[in-house]
Amino acid sequence: MLMRDDPLAREKVFRDPVHNYIHVSDRVILALIDTPEFQRLRRIKQLGVANYVFQGAEHTRFTHSLGVYEITRKMCESFATNFPSRAPGDGLWDDNERLVALCSALLHDIGHGPYSHTFEHLFGTDHEAITRRILTDPSTAVNAVLKTVSPDFPEQVASVIAHTYPNPQVVQMISSQIDADRMDYLLRDAYHTGTNYGLFDLTRILRVMRPYAGGIAYEADGMHAVEDYIVSRFQMYQQVYFHPVSRSMETILAKLLARAKVLYEAGAFAQDAPRLLVPFFEHDFTLADYLRLDDGVLNTYFTAWCTESDPILADLAGRFLNRRPFKSVSFTAATADQLPALRQLVAAAGFDPAYYTAENDSFDLPYDQYDPEAANPKTQIEIMQPDGTLSELSTQSRLVAAITGRVSGDKRFYFPKVMLEPTSTDLFTPIYRQFQAHVVNGRLK
Amino acid sequence: MLMRDDPLAREKVFRDPVHNYIHVSDRVILALIDTPEFQRLRRIKQLGVANYVFQGAEHTRFTHSLGVYEITRKMCESFATNFPSRAPGDGLWDDNERLVALCSALLHDIGHGPYSHTFEHLFGTDHEAITRRILTDPSTAVNAVLKTVSPDFPEQVASVIAHTYPNPQVVQMISSQIDADRMDYLLRDAYHTGTNYGLFDLTRILRVMRPYAGGIAYEADGMHAVEDYIVSRFQMYQQVYFHPVSRSMETILAKLLARAKVLYEAGAFAQDAPRLLVPFFEHDFTLADYLRLDDGVLNTYFTAWCTESDPILADLAGRFLNRRPFKSVSFTAATADQLPALRQLVAAAGFDPAYYTAENDSFDLPYDQYDPEAANPKTQIEIMQPDGTLSELSTQSRLVAAITGRVSGDKRFYFPKVMLEPTSTDLFTPIYRQFQAHVVNGRLK
Amino acid sequence: MLMRDDPLAREKVFRDPVHNYIHVSDRVILALIDTPEFQRLRRIKQLGVANYVFQGAEHTRFTHSLGVYEITRKMCESFATNFPSRAPGDGLWDDNERLVALCSALLHDIGHGPYSHTFEHLFGTDHEAITRRILTDPSTAVNAVLKTVSPDFPEQVASVIAHTYPNPQVVQMISSQIDADRMDYLLRDAYHTGTNYGLFDLTRILRVMRPYAGGIAYEADGMHAVEDYIVSRFQMYQQVYFHPVSRSMETILAKLLARAKVLYEAGAFAQDAPRLLVPFFEHDFTLADYLRLDDGVLNTYFTAWCTESDPILADLAGRFLNRRPFKSVSFTAATADQLPALRQLVAAAGFDPAYYTAENDSFDLPYDQYDPEAANPKTQIEIMQPDGTLSELSTQSRLVAAITGRVSGDKRFYFPKVMLEPTSTDLFTPIYRQFQAHVVNGRLK
Amino acid sequence: MLMRDDPLAREKVFRDPVHNYIHVSDRVILALIDTPEFQRLRRIKQLGVANYVFQGAEHTRFTHSLGVYEITRKMCESFATNFPSRAPGDGLWDDNERLVALCSALLHDIGHGPYSHTFEHLFGTDHEAITRRILTDPSTAVNAVLKTVSPDFPEQVASVIAHTYPNPQVVQMISSQIDADRMDYLLRDAYHTGTNYGLFDLTRILRVMRPYAGGIAYEADGMHAVEDYIVSRFQMYQQVYFHPVSRSMETILAKLLARAKVLYEAGAFAQDAPRLLVPFFEHDFTLADYLRLDDGVLNTYFTAWCTESDPILADLAGRFLNRRPFKSVSFTAATADQLPALRQLVAAAGFDPAYYTAENDSFDLPYDQYDPEAANPKTQIEIMQPDGTLSELSTQSRLVAAITGRVSGDKRFYFPKVMLEPTSTDLFTPIYRQFQAHVVNGRLK
């Protein structure tokens, strides 16, 4: 049964706190939502460990993925109504692209696993490659559903996500400096964290978007709404995504998994080995192995590890589950030379610095112009003037110009909280004092 | 170190999407939040399976517990400012009760486990008894922290939760027909489900609450805010908590756990037995066993069971994880006699009715007057007139009167979706047709 | 130029805090908004004097009228998409009705003047008759615009507002127990007063509305959203529209205008007579006279009257402008016999009871079933079951049943605040004490 | 009766859509709200003509003034709790300053008249001087109330508003680059316009504010909340306050009043002269004359002028009341030389360019560092590091640095809409074409 032109008898809706309702009128979309690979996203938090800082951030990649779908659906609807293509090559919207856009939006994150960034870094997994496999591997339910549209539809969706799909409008909907993915996560993360930095006027942005031959542009009288979106994104990175305590919890997670791997390799687990992680410890995993993981699986192992005999593993597992973060200070290239001394002090205070200290760099490029020389050239945001000419956003906005092409973030050094505690009668007090002498106003002197 | 009068150097705040900020100024509260027993609530969803229907309902008992604490803190603050006791027995607020009220609020749900109601029903656990044990058992971190206030403080907190604490104001703050628990969950569940049924004017209710000798009363000019709260609660039960599809997912969960228990008892698990569940299968569990469970642990087993050899276990596990709910119809005492016939039809269609059909009754008493004869007498809501006389709420509000003392809800019969599917070429079509002949407008004829 | 099928080149939007954007795609709608008769609504507050109690209630009939238009537009859009008529008489939606529905929605309040209800009561004006004249009188810009659609279009719009238009779907959109008018004012008044009583789920109601031969019905699975709307409306009446202090300010306004009329008739104005009011004092006004009035015109006279020589006029004008309300007590048929005595006490305290006391009844019928015997039969709300049968709302909702067919409200007696002031050294203290002896808990004993 | 330490028996609250409740516990504040001078603010819109563009902007200076009061009250409460002065000169908060701060906040706008900026420009009135007179002139009710606190209290309040009060903390609460006035209007204007540009985290800013000897500083970990406020303010100016159509309506208002003055001076009014405006036409007005004006008074004259015999006056009055704005183009110093030619074309098209063209410059300095050389030196925003050192905001925030010390805005040229209309058969078409040849993308070429 080919599903390409197979609408539902009546539109279905999903209630959503961010978009109010999410509208589904294609049978294939409903079938994709119902696949095990997609339902699995209900068990993977969108923001990993951020709920340790912003307690409301308990939402998952499932709700985010539906949100990205919904924003993309609204884009298609607006384009089909206001800018329908009349002739091939006229640069307007060809509504035959709708289904590939919707499926790409819905599935763009399907390859994510639990605590993605930390996990990937340690085990060398790659969520983009896995997304591609989920789409194109005949073993998955997602692939089976996509093939009901056409035999090459899975590859088409994969190529949108890989940015190689020929229609730049479709690619930019899903992945560009102002795409449905980013717009949903800013709004959704703001809603759940209870911050308002991520708010911007989605309705207005959708109103001023328009297709053109090169992709998607924004009408000039909506420039400020686009500017506000860029500023919101910048602020969310500074205030939420790069929060020092979130990064602390990620650091602990990374150290915990690293320790588990070392113990596994040494055959030193007292309890059963963590069966579902073994393929990753051994760098030899199947897609099925990967799809079995979620936040709960990892936390279940961490709970078990709290009573493992290795004191470092047990302590780090307890720190992670029970939120006992490391403290941190920021440092720069100029002050980084103090780090060896600080690590020695941490060691002198009784902590193995390999597991109880860490450096963490968090940097983001909030917006950039197109630069063909760049390692990773960005599709810049184009503002369309009434006469049809295009101007790059940062030439129109002083606020955007201020952050264009400049990475934002900081480097931090993490260590146990006790190192910063005020003088007590503790044996180690002289060591703590020495440590504290390096620090002022939350940074290395 | 006794913590009773041990304030933090500077108030701490937790950001919260519902209350904006949660304010903590007592060291003991912070210490309780940091216990493993309390942090564990981050891994237990507040609404169990409701996110299968209202996808945003991914919030946990952790954030709810902090919310209940915050509302109680506001009550204490208002009482201390506006109605401070001047002499024992004057019926006003004694601020020495503040700490026991705050701790009781924070910890009132600490005994909950994963998918509480379903789990309890099957395994005979009792979250209230477990709450008491967590508070009073010397093995827990919670108990250790509470004892820093005074040796009998754990018992005091437990007695508030058990409604036996002598001060009725404290008890009613935490548990009555209009308490901090209900007020937080209505607001929070409304926020995350994206419905507005649960909204009411918390600020106004807090303004018109006042202590009196018998507990807590509400000033007459706030009657409508109290009425609105009762109506909101009624509507949330009808619209969210009793949603037929949520109950379907709970039904599947119950059948799944029941099947697992049967297989365990029969020694029929092909894979390893689910070690963390064994103490519950055997009805012989310790507090530590209980505290090791959370949503993720159960889901991890369910994932494994999807590939178990028992087809019923595997199918039910997949239904639960991948959201393939049963369908249902409502029935009454008058139409219940059709259920045996329906079960036979389900069996004839190839499903074991012991696992593929279920009855589910969901009833709630939205509000009631005090009735000393009742099995579970309620503390009624008292409206205080300007001259100090009290009137029971339902005598003041026609809307509340309409739902007072009357349970609301329905009985539903659950079965596989295919039984309701429109005629096809399926072998079983005649059976489905027979089944469908019993049903009209979502109920048994 | 006929405008019937004359869309704008590109849809225009008006930003609105309640609906976010209001969408206009018909040239005739834009032309109607631009008429002087419609722009005049910017100068007439929606809630008259309610901002004296809920200070944010400063919004006007202009924004409300656009809101009613927008809700109606959404109804038409949903009907055209989901329930398009295929053959005459099939009971589905004929999109040729769209323009008459939109114009009726936009213009339904065009006949309102300043402080409508009070003004009408005193001067015998009738905003419904005036609406009709504005629509159909060739002197108005509104009529000129409507005639560009067709010569009989003004009459068609007028007949919708008069409930005599043949298509009951169009009539019920604009005027029924659940119409675009009420839905907008509940949401808008809630937004501006800052209360949440008026909130309900507009999106869901729009989703479950459907045309049928008899008008508009609501699908059964949306029953609770409709119930919630009815309850919201009931609560707004109780809490906002019938607020005793709003009614006090209305009472003062009525007395003030009555006094002015008496003075005019007596030729006793010391300053110039209030020229723009003279036609109303003389019960002989033209449409142009009426259209010249607005809140500002009346307030301008009131400001002048503060320095008139008549002490009652000057005092009442100052009370109205500077918010010095009368106090009130509620009374019933059983306690009404005390009113003459109370009036005498007010007189004894030095106030003319004709101007300084008043009775005010505020009653509303929140919802009713259809009753052909009733003076003003209501179109009841019909819930459509899956098999197409209709059930009247109150048979489906216990909450609605509680308020169906029963008027809600109270009778209050108004008088100067000093009558309730606590004993002082005032000469009149014995009189005040006598007065106060009649009152307990805000009502007559 | 001295009111300094005269609290109300029980706190009063005013419901407010922006702050939810406004809390009043001082008798003097309630008495000030009840004065005619303050109640008059109910009749003066906060944003003048902005509701012609953002229709919801119908709120008044009354609600804004209460909002400024409420934010100031929260500042005082936080300072009194967290930073109470222990000894004179310790730079902490002396709660004896509370009442002068609250009264200054409440009354800071009391001298505003209708359509303030336009009116002042034409008639040379000065709302700051009038504020001072209302506070200190024995004829006002405000002065009488303030004197109940102490004989010199009116002067104290006036000196706060004039920035000459000795305590810089009090002055900066009311008037600085981040004061209660700006914070309220950004939130309130955002609420009523329905835009979200003006939103920022007021609660967090209040939490990180702290008094020091030089005024008010912000703790370093709240820097981003302060940054967000500055960016919000910048965006509101760009998007709302400087909207070209609002400025068009202001332009029309200015021309209308100018024409009326000319006619008055020429004795050319056909109807009665506008009595309440005469003192202003003659530049000889009393405080009482000024206090008699409000939006409604002016609009009442404008309504009358629609039928005056002077065609320019009548047309401009109609344009203003019925929203028929001029169109505009932006220009720069480089393109300003085309303006004479454009004015000639407007004249050639039949419009008197003195009344039908205008230049409008709107510029704002969104934030600046302290510069003793500046004409109007600003109190810069100080960020306090953990060790107590201060850093000026723009050194900490890249976004703020981008807009520091640089005025934002544009110059626009206004003219009748017909000049931009597309070619028609109009006699003047060649003139319009010539005009349009100067314009591209909304600016002069």
From TrEMBL, chains A, B, C, D:
<protein>
    <submittedName>
        <fullName>HD superfamily phosphohydrolase</fullName>
    </submittedName>
</protein>
<feature type="domain" description="HD/PDEase">
    <location>
        <begin position="57"/>
        <end position="195"/>
    </location>
</feature>
<dbReference type="InterPro" id="IPR006674">
    <property type="entry name" value="HD_domain"/>
</dbReference>
<dbReference type="InterPro" id="IPR050135">
    <property type="entry name" value="dGTPase-like"/>
</dbReference>
<dbReference type="Pfam" id="PF01966">
    <property type="entry name" value="HD"/>
</dbReference>
<keyword id="KW-0378">Hydrolase</keyword>
<dbReference type="GO" id="GO:0006203">
    <property type="term" value="P:dGTP catabolic process"/>
</dbReference>
<dbReference type="Pfam" id="PF19276">
    <property type="entry name" value="HD_assoc_2"/>
</dbReference>
<dbReference type="InterPro" id="IPR045509">
    <property type="entry name" value="HD_assoc_2"/>
</dbReference>
<dbReference type="GO" id="GO:0008832">
    <property type="term" value="F:dGTPase activity"/>
</dbReference>
<dbReference type="InterPro" id="IPR003607">
    <property type="entry name" value="HD/PDEase_dom"/>
</dbReference>
